[in-house]
Amino acid sequence: MATQAGWATEAPAVNNTASFEIEDATSAKVALDSNELSGIGLPRIVGNSAALRRVLGMVRIVAPTDATVLIQGETGTGKELIAEAIHKCSDRSNGPFVKVNCAAIPAGLLESELFGHERGAYTGAVARCIGRFERANRGTLFLDEIGDLPLELQPKLLRVIQERQFERLGGAATLHTDVRVICATHRNLNEMVEERQFRADLFYRLSVFPIELPPLRERPEDIRLLVHHFAMDYAARMNKRITSISEQSMTALVRHSWPGNVRELQNFIERSVILATGAVLNGSLPEPTRTTHDDSQGPKLSAPVTLEQAERSHILQTLQQTEGVVGGQNGAAAKLGLPRTTLIAKMKRLGINASQRSEHSGALAPMSSVYGNAMQKDRAIARLVFTEL
Q1: What is the C-alpha separation between 185 and 66, in angstroms, rounded?
Q2: pLDDT in tens, 68-77
Q3: Can you tell me the distance from the alpha carbon of 170 to that of 373, in angstroms, rounded to the nearest whole number?
Q4: In 95-144, where do the E strands start and end?
Q5: Is 100 helix (H, G, I), strand (E, B) or coil?
Q6: Do 324 and 247 reside in the same domain of the chain?
């Protein structure tokens, strides 16, 4: 794309460094070119990977339509940039592009932010307020983190998307709006629908044209271009003459997993430019992402457990301490602050019963395994010996 030819390319290595000096969007093969998208004022999307090109191809297809778009991807992958690109390449490009982060606005205020309110609609509403849907008329409304939209607001959003009409909070007049809706989320809406945390009808309405943004770890070929782009951008802002980066550092950056994706990489390069004292960019590389397969990396984190699992584990630990005694002054019920009958009822509900005995009398399972998988928990329970039930 000729209008966006302001990115740095990589020159051949000199003295084991990669140069930043040449600016040539053609040789850099920046993903946004005249064959993919066109238009003045498009956001800068840097990359040349096949995965990113597929996304941009989908943007080119859907942009001229009025279809609702659902952009999904991890935090920091650039969902807002894709939404803005869709708007800029559409027939609504001359209209407003209004953004709302559903996770950043308290649930009690979000309805007013979206639909507006009349004077006196609630305490503190001293004047009429125009909502985001009205502001975005004849333009595009970008709803970021749509997975955090409260359930009680989801039917209202579905209605305004389908019927293009709504009422302000505290108002009786029905208002009409001509808005294209683009949504984004890092959450798995399919799972949220199954868990009844997100309405199925709204999900199907939003996902008319889904776009999945790949994480940075799946397109390492884009990292070099992004490093060059961010380094030159921040060097220019800070009036620093940075011309190269050591190939060793670049290789380490390409190999890093970048769990925070492009945003994390951008922040790292900004910090490196701030600390740079010479022409060669260097910086303390991000620590490798810790995995559960390397015991030398430190203690492993326990997998999340449910309230019922935690309760069961606590009872088992107490029974271990009391050697299986439930009642009495030093029994598990007394230690837990429960009546003996209440504890017995809980044990039955949680599957802790007298029939699960060990072949070795008096042997108790080590409780470090309780937070493990189901087989480990059952094995721990099977080794308990109850002296009183």
Answers
A1: 20
A2: 999 999 999 9
A3: 52
A4: 97-101, 139-144
A5: strand
A6: no
